[in-house]
Every structure is written in structure tokens, then in C-alpha cells.
């Protein structure tokens, strides 16, 4: 495993574990996954040196936090647990009580990284950040992060907090590489962390989904699994497969290796099995040659998915067509 030093957090494993899947009906993994597999995934993650675990109060209405806290057991205070507040009415008193709820479900006195889940479009960070600053000063959190923030809003959050907001968790993968343009250079310049969520594009970059085999649940709504986008993704998947073959690893591992070889970037893939967390942890040790890194970046920039609206229209047309056929 490789690590990144982050102010207020210490060493953070370059590959973390995303736990939205834990206890969340929308992933469709079922009760046995929530009751047993999730804990086995966490234990194996620890065995393999993973120290970063991402969750949120909204995942499974708190079930993700509960499952994660229980699975970490006595180690829960020794790792970087990153949770998130959903910033509805994010006044200090509200933030404080939401943090207390997360800490209780996780079994922690102090949440190492507490993130604002989305930028509230109506409420500025000058309202949200004072509550987080109080929690930081009281030692109830170790550091403040944000999620889904633009660069300008990240900088505004810094200003409002009065100290650095150490991380920004954003959608970032070979299928969605826009963080390369501004967030990664900023993080490198300022010594911050970009936390890549959906780093496997929710499984697309594993290369096993296609028009005859699409994932269900929440991913049925992901435009990347629409027919036209699956077609457009093929050249990117071909480059991934070629690089993967040269390293005798899987396309998913190359997709993660590409991310974590970027400066100040960590990735938090979710996992549906213990075998996946093993593969994902091992991706941290894949060394990409500069020409491979460049070829992957070029393929990522060439991939131009069609919009969610166009994918929706496509789906309606396909349904109507299937009904007629
Ligand atoms: N801040 C936010 O707004 C936000 C939004 C989304 C996610 N997140 C966080 O980011 C985490 C990860 O994102 P995500 O779950 O959306 O997407 P992801 O990590 O890109 O995809 C996870 C899925 O990919 C498949 N997979 C995992 N490892 C694999 C491997 N080695 N080979 C092939 N397939 C593999 C599994 O699904 P199957 O096996 O079923 O195909 C798994 O459930 C979440 O758990 C959550 O903590 C945050």
C-alpha cells in the first residue's frame, strides 16, 4: 500500500474503501451483504493496509456508519474514518447535532475527517463553516473536507473556515477526468487531497458491463450505462485492457492505478466482494510507465459521453421499440 500525508490526518492510504454500498438498498446487494460481506470487506481492507474509510450520514440512513463502525471494532479510532454531513439548514447547532449522530453510529468520540456532502446552492459556506470550526476547535473532528465542490467554492470554503479545508471528494475517474484541469493542480500546489469517488465509474471501468449486461439498482440511472455511452466507452476500455494485459492485472486495477499515481489523489472504490477489495488494494502497487499514464489520460479526454437527458430519451425509445417488437 502507498500513503499520502495530509495535514490533520496523518498517512492516508492511496486506496481507501467507499461504503455507500453498506446497508443501502439502492445498490441492491441484499441483506446477507449488509449483515456479513460488508464486515468481511472492512476486515480484509485493514489486513491489506487500507486506512481510509468513507461513509456519510445519508448512506442507508445511517446504516453504513453503523456497519462500518462495528466492523472496524477496536481499530476504529486508529484509522481515517471520513463521514459527511448533508448540509440542509447547516447552522452551527444543526451541524453539531448531526456530527454527534454520526459519531455515535460510528462508535467514535472524534471523527477524523468530516466533509460537507454537497455545496448548498442557497446557503453560503460562511453559514456552514462556523459549526465545523467549532467542532474542530473542540477536538470532535480531526479535519474538515468538502465534497462535490468546484475549485472556486473550495477556496471560498477555506476562507469561511479560516484555515485549509484539507480535501475535496469529487467524481473522478478515467470516465470523468475533469478534476485534472483544476482540482488536482490546486491540491498539488497547496498540499491538499483530492478524494476520487466513483473511481471505477460505478463498475464501468471493470469492463464487464455491456448492452446485454447492465447493472441494476441506482446504476440503472447512471447515464454511463446507456447504449450510446457504452459504445462511446469502448476505445477507452480497449486502452485499459491493453495496459492491464501488459501488467497482468485487471482493467479496474489500471483505472485505480492511473488515479493514485496523480499527485495528491486518493481513490475510494466501493466493493461488492472481498475479492474486489483485494484487487483494489493491490492496484496501489501497480507502477504505470509515463507513456501508459499518458495514453490513459488521452483516452479519458477523448471519451465524450452523451448527456443524462439524451440517455433518458434513448431508454424510452428502446423500451417503446422493445414493446413493439
Ligand atoms: N461524495 C459523493 O457525493 C459520493 C458519490 C458517490 C460515491 N461516493 C463514495 O465513493 C465510493 C465509491 O463510489 P461508487 O461506489 O459510486 O463507485 P465505484 O467505486 O466506481 O464502483 C463501485 C462498484 O464497482 C464494482 N467494483 C469494485 N471493485 C471492482 C473490481 N476490482 N473489478 C470490477 N468491478 C469492481 C462493484 O460493483 P459490482 O461488482 O456490483 O459491479 C462496486 O460496488 C462510495 O462507496 C462512496 O463512499 C461519494
Averaged pLDDT, please? 96
Q: Give start-end ranges of low-pLDDT stretches.
A: none
Which descriptor suits the 3D outline?
A: globular
The CATH architecture: Alpha-Beta Barrel
Helix percentage range:
40-55%
Task: Describe the largest sheet.
Answer: 8 strands, parallel
Question: What is the number of E strands?
Answer: 10
Walk across the major sheet and give the strand order: 3-4-5-6-7-8-9-10
Q: What is the N-to-C succession of helices and strands?
A: EEEHEHEHEHEHEHEHHHEHHH
Q: Strand content of the residues, in percent?
A: 5-15%
Kindly report the CATH topology: TIM Barrel
- CATH superfamily grouping: NADP-dependent oxidoreductase domain
Distance between the termini: 52 Å
Cα Rg: 19 Å
Structural class from helices and strands?
alpha/beta
Total domain modules: 1
Determine and state the CATH class: Alpha Beta
What hetero molecules are bound to the protein chains?
NADP nicotinamide-adenine-dinucleotide phosphate
Number of helices: 12
How would you concisely characterize the structure shown here?
The chain has twelve helices and ten strands. By secondary structure, the chain is α/β, with parallel strands linked by helices. The radius of gyration is 19 Å and the shape is globular.
Provide an overview of this structure.
With about 325 residues, this protein is α/β, with parallel strands linked by helices. It has one domain: Alpha-Beta Barrel (TIM Barrel), CATH 3.20.20. The chain has twelve helices and ten strands. Strands 3-4-5-6-7-8-9-10 form an eight-stranded parallel beta sheet. Helix 4 links the parallel strand 6 (about 110-115) and strand 7. Helix 1 runs parallel beside helix 10 (about 275-280) and helix 4 packs across helix 5 (about 150-160). The longest helix has 18 residues, at about 30-45. It is globular. The N and C termini lie far apart (about 50 Å). The model has no long low-confidence stretch (mean pLDDT about 95). The chain binds NADP nicotinamide-adenine-dinucleotide phosphate (NAP).
